[in-house]
């Protein structure tokens, strides 16, 4: 890719960060876009000469570099950079020195794709689980596609607004609509990811990819990581399509199997999406009132702000809903369930 495309990726990421409430990361990406072409050193050379696709939808190069810098702050490795982050104002000299002084660390960090696990999205999963419980009273077997560190598989341990004031993690998005109130129980949960991340061993990496000036997100993530140490989840490394075929070969009797994904399917290759949809359709043909299958998607669909939230339910017949829309980081939820036809996992690609 050309240097111009790298710079464009940083400017695009700056715009996205500004929209998603991170002025510090937006300013950081803008400053890097302005200065990297003239910056000396191995890091600037590597970034400007990036061999792959630097865009957010591909290699996410700006987030790789931003994550590396945040890791230096979180670990206390660069005190001057840490002070700069506290002020919320970019200091070109401090940033340039960090790129030069910690080149080996940053170059190593750039070699790994960003890995996030936004637990704010669990507000949507909790609401959908309650919505399902209001339709069918069976325990849930949950299967997450693109599970990352598995933090959202622990959604049953999180509270939503004032329903569980004693929970260690309580999600409080700006909620529009009538919140479902039925109770649910998760009997079993597991997930799949191409590159699962360990919530204990890789705690710093997960924290570093959470934008530094978003205190509420960082607090949520900290609480979720603490809970993950108490309630470990199972995330298998592999392709989501093959994994889902295996898990749905024999749908659980006496349970609702809930397959879900949040801002993940849109990154799956077309073959994986098609394989996942085929697995769902095969399992759907085996459902009845006691062997139930549900599919929840929260994905960018190009139909409005944030992500569209959709639900399909098979219990011998198919029912479908557009549940509403949600902010990508869970800052707000518009909960407006309406029956809808023709939904599908592949449609999540937008």
From TrEMBL:
One protein family per Pfam: DUF2332
InterPro entries, A to Z: UCP012608
The organism's place on the tree of life at top rank: Bacteria
Name assigned to this protein: DUF2332 family protein
